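Task card 7
Instruction: Convert sequence to structure tokens.
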Amino acid sequence: MNKLYDEIYIKYSNDIYRYLITLTNDKYLSEEITQETFFQAFKSIHSFNRKCSVYTWLCAIAKIAFSFSFLHNIAFTYAIMYGVISHGGTQFLSQSRNMHPY
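Output:
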């Protein structure tokens, strides 16, 4: 199975990275999401039903990974703005459970 993973990664990683660059306009974030895309794809490769190409399947996973990354960044920014966590991201305040987004 590792050989299959290697072949898929070698064949599609650059294309997925370039696709993510168009979404993020950030090479470092695109690299991170590319890695997450392949991690998620390999975890769920048993669910690949061959109704689309491998590339299309990977792009769908990449788009979802991008969306989660985007939402995570919004939540992290919100948490910093409203004092739920410190700017370094390591200090959680005890009253953070009581905070509401409204």
